[in-house]
Amino acid sequence: MNNLLTISADQEHFIQEMLDETKTARNFTDFSVEDGGTRKIIYIPVDDGEIRVIHVNPKNKISIRPLVFIPGWGVIPRNFKDFYEVLHEKIEFFYIETREKKTSRIKRFKSKFTMNQKAKDVGDALNFLGLNGGKDFIIMGACWGGAVILQGLMDKSIKAPTIVPIDPMHRLWYPQWMLDYVGPLLPIWLLYLMKPLLKWLRLRKMTEKVQKQRAEDLIKEAVMWKWKRAGFQCRHFELFGNLSKIDDEVFVFNATNDLIHDNRDYPKIANEIPKGRFIYMETDESNREYMMGILGREFSKVSSSEGIPPIFREFEKKV
Fold first, then answer.
1. Mean of the pLDDT values across residues 179-201?
2. What is the average pLDDT across 115-130?
3. CA-to-CA dists, residue 273 to 4, 69, 142, 267, angstroms
4. Which residue segment(s) compose the domain that 61 sits in?
5. Which run of H or E residues covers position 202?
6. How many distinct structural domains can be found in the chain?
7. What pLDDT digit, counting tens, does each position of 50-79 carry?
8. Which segments within 71-156 are labelled E, that is strand?
9. Is 0.85 topped by the overall pTM?
10. Is 196 part of any domain?
11. What does the pLDDT read at residue 79?
12. Whole-angstrom Cα distance, residue 5 to residue 17?
């Protein structure tokens, strides 16, 4: 395991140079705001409602195929400004928000928030966007978004030429006792009053500034009836022991280790997938979204038949 989660001094230097070359001093607009040209908001019909997709299509893009990105649980677009900085005016991408997000238009009563349903929503969105029938594209998901993609591969509801989950969560991170016994009993109005407690539970052991800000925004934007239902219906979700159902080649990517993302999990996930591959490019949490952007940019510049982009090949680990 130790060899899988180490890189050489030369590789570390290469990663830092790549990050330094990527970062700019520009202040980027929230990419979820339509600009009448390159940024467009689309609401896509799914079971019991609609989910939001943001389509960014630069005029002078360098990508040869689009990127589809699935963010983590409750995350909002402004948390991905570093990600957008890398892709800005270069890469066409679709940002698909799953149904627990504030932006979804889902019927409140009897709607499902299971992992199977979220994965089906993503598959329905891909079909709606015409990303099927031989179309070359990359699907990439971070944290819970990566878990949704893996669930879709197990269910056969998601199909893509190139699949890159980033730090996929193997289970829901809240305490099991809360998901099983406390959450179901609490009325929605009380959950809103409990937002400070939920925030404390999330942040109490976090030290990374970027991650803390992301978590604060997540709690602030939470729609509690969606969270309550999603938390209850996903309370027994577990990737380990089920990943052998995946037939596709999957590139599992990891760069950071923190309270939420235990990097020891990711080579195990790749190993359990029959055609799983593991890419490890160590950096700190402040660079996590930049690394996601670099990953999406480079995969978008090569076709699926080319496999791993050249700059990542030395970082693949045998699992």
1. 76
2. 97
3. 16, 21, 18, 10
4. 3-171+239-317
5. helix 195-203
6. 1
7. 999 999 999 999 999 999 999 998 888 988
8. 93-96, 105-106, 138-142
9. yes
10. no
11. 84
12. 20
